[in-house]
Amino acid sequence: MQKQLNDCIRHHQKILRYIQVLEDTMNFPLCGLFLIFLSAMCFDAFSAITSWGDHTDVSQALAVYIVQTGCMCVYCWLGNELSEGVESVRDAAWGCDWVGTPVPFQRCLMFIIAKANKEFILTAGKFVPVSNKTMMNMMNQSISFFMFLLHMKDKNADNNQGV
Question: CB-side exposure of 17: number of CA atoms within 13 Å?
Answer without folding.
Answer: 6
